[in-house]
Automatic annotation (TrEMBL):
InterPro entries named in the record: Kinase-like_dom_sf, Prot_kinase_dom, Protein_kinase_ATP_BS, Ser/Thr_kinase_AS
Name of the protein this chain belongs to: Testis-specific serine/threonine-protein kinase 6
Gene Ontology CC annotations of this record: cytoplasm
Record keywords: ATP-binding, Developmental protein, Differentiation, Kinase, Magnesium, Metal-binding, Nucleotide-binding, Phosphoprotein, Serine/threonine-protein kinase, Spermatogenesis, Transferase, Ubl conjugation
UniProt cross-references to PANTHER family, sorted A to Z: MAP/MICROTUBULE AFFINITY-REGULATING KINASE, TESTIS-SPECIFIC SERINE_THREONINE-PROTEIN KINASE 1
Gene, per the UniProt record: LOC108252918
Originating organism: Diaphorina citri (Asian citrus psyllid)
């Protein structure tokens, strides 16, 4: 990936100049979502080291996301620091966009890795799952629930080194103090029974259920539940 060259910016020269003054230059797009995209970027202050830049377009997002989820995500990203959580290097807003620069994980996400290479052996799976457990334990020690744990949100900077990402649904939760969550977050295939059933839930416990689903996929290469048949999942639970 080191041979990639920066693409011409499609967001205007002024934006490009501000980004460059912050020490970065944007490269090609490597992912898109409903209201955000991810591009390669070059850290000009670190010998053009490759990093990733998540660009959030507030014009495309709902008011609930802008007023509730986005401020919460940015606040959490500023506070957390763990070797197995993608580290935010810089973030700033320009007009309707928010730019978040973070580690670039060149080996892609865990789901794609399993699809391309097959499931992990117990020994190798144990190493990676221990890293995930360390990251989630750290978050929970700060009363932070991720609420969207899934293989797609686990990136690999090396084949045997994972980093947790995407805190768009994360929130603070203090057991016994904070009211249970009511928001359906994440993917049905990884969701705990109470979330599927639509009942209030403890999001910290929901994270633990999701981790079990991730471990199942790591060791078998298949999904534990068919999320295309949500009503059948409710009956199973």
């Amino acid at each position: 990936m080191s041979g990639d060259r920066p693409s011409s910016s499609d967001m205007g020269s002024n934006v490009g100049q501000v980004i460059q003054s912050a020490g970065y230059k944007l490269g090609k797009s490597i992912g898109t979502g409903s209201y955000s995209s991810v591009r390669l970027a070059y850290n000009l202050k670190a010998n053009n080291q490759l990093v990733a830049c998540k660009i959030i377009n507030k014009d495309k997002a709902s008011s609930k996301f802008i007023n509730k989820f986005l401020p919460r995500e940015l606040d959490i990203l500023k506070r957390i620091k763990h070797p197995h959580i993608v580290r935010v290097l810089n973030m700033f807003g320009l007009g309707s966009r928010v730019f978040v620069f973070m580690n670039y994980c060149s080996f892609g996400d865990l789901l794609d890795h399993i699809r391309d290479n097959g499931h992990y052996s117990e020994d190798k799976g144990k190493v990676l799952f221990k890293q995930l457990l360390s990251a989630v334990t750290y978050l929970h020690s700060w009363n932070i629930a991720h609420r969207d744990l899934k293989c797609e949100n686990i990136l690999l900077s090396k084949p045997d080194f994972l980093m947790l990402t995407d805190f768009g649904f994360s929130r603070y939760f203090h057991p016994g103090v904070t009211p249970p969550s009511n928001t359906f977050c994440g993917s049905a295939a990884y969701a705990a029974p109470e979330i599927i059933e639509g009942t209030p839930y403890n999001p910290l416990l929901g994270d633990i259920w999701s981790m079990g689903c991730i471990l199942f996929i790591m060791l078998t290469g298949i999904m534990p539940f068919d999320d295309s048949k949500v009503m059948e999942m409710v009956c199973i639970f």
